[in-house]
Amino acid sequence: MKHLVLVIMVLIIAGPTSAQTGDLRGDLDIIYNDLDRLKSRQPYGKIEGSPFLFDSWQTASVSLSNKRHLNEVKINLDLFGNKVILLRNEHEIEIDAKSVEQIQISNNKSTLLIKTNVILNKETDRFYLILASGEKVVLAKELKVVLKSGDDFGAQAQFVADHEYYLISSTQFRKVGTTRKAISKWFFEYEEEMKRFVDSYKGNLKMDSSLALIVNHYNELYN
After folding, report:
1. Which of 103, 108, 128, 219 is the most buried (most CB within 10 A)?
2. Crossing angle of helices 208-220/191-200, nearest 10°?
3. How far apart are CA 158 and CA 44, in angstroms?
4. Which pLDDT value is given to residue 199?
5. Is 148 helix (H, G, I), strand (E, B) or coil?
6. Of 30-44, 47-61, 101-115, which range is least confident?
7. 3-state secondary structure of 194
8. 105 class by beta-carbon count within 10 Å (0-12 exposed, 13-18 middle, 19+ buried)
9. Do the bridges between strand 6-10 and strand 111-114 make them parallel or antiparallel, or are there none, so unpaired?
C-alpha cells in the first residue's frame, strides 16, 4: 500500500498526553468536550491525568466481533481499562476491547483504524494504531496508559501515557526499537538497501509519519 494508513487498534501506542497522539487529535473534528464528566463517573476521579485517548468524543464506525456494525457513533477509548466508551442517548456504554473488531475514525484529513484484527493477524484486547500497512509488513503502535502510584510525600497517583512499536507480518509480531541503529535492523530482506535508506533519511525519526514512510518504502520494494 503506497499511501499512509493510520490505524488505531485495540491493543494499543502514543498515549493521550503524547505529542504524537496530540498531532493526530488535531486532525479530527471535535464533537464536544465533556470528558471531565465521564472521568468523574469512572473509578478514576481522584487520579491525575486522563486514561482516555482523545480530549473529546469522536464520531466513528465500529465493527464488533459478533459481526454487528455501529455507524456514526460517538466514542472514546479508555486506554487504561482497555474499553471503548460509546455515547448513546447521553448515556455511556462500555465495550470491552476484546469484543471489538475494528474502529474507524475518518474525516477529510486522516483515517484512524482501531483494532483491525485482519491487519494485526490476531485477536487482541489492546489498542493499536496502524501507522503503515502493505504487502509485506505492518507498522503498529501500541497505545496504552499506565498508572503511576502516589507516594507518602503527598504526590497523587497519575495516569502516564506510554507506547511501543511493532512490526507485523504473516510470520512475526515483533516489538522494535526506534533509534536510527535499531530501525536499520528492522528488515531481514533488502537489508542493505533499507540500511542505506534509513542512514540517509533526514527526517525526524521520533515522528510516526517518518517511521511510516520508512515502512512504506520497504513495502514498495515488493511492488
Report:
1. 128
2. 150
3. 9
4. 92
5. strand
6. 30-44
7. helix
8. buried
9. parallel
Q: Are 201 and 181 in contact (CB under 8 A)?
A: no
Contact 30, 56 (CB under 8 A): yes
Residue 175: its pLDDT value, please? 95
Beta bridge partners of 77: 84
Cell numbers given for 98: 476484546
CB 87 within 8 A of CB 57: yes
- Grid coordinates representing 103 are 474502529
Buried b (16+ CB within 10 A) or exposed e, 165-184: bbbbeeeeeeeeebeeeebb
**How many other C-beta atoms lie within 10 A of the C-beta of residue 194?**
21
Which residue shows C-alpha cell 483504524?
113
Map residue 133 onto helix, strand or coil: strand
The label of the residue with cell 540500511 reads 195
What average pLDDT does the segment 193-218 reach?
94
pTM of the full structure: 0.76
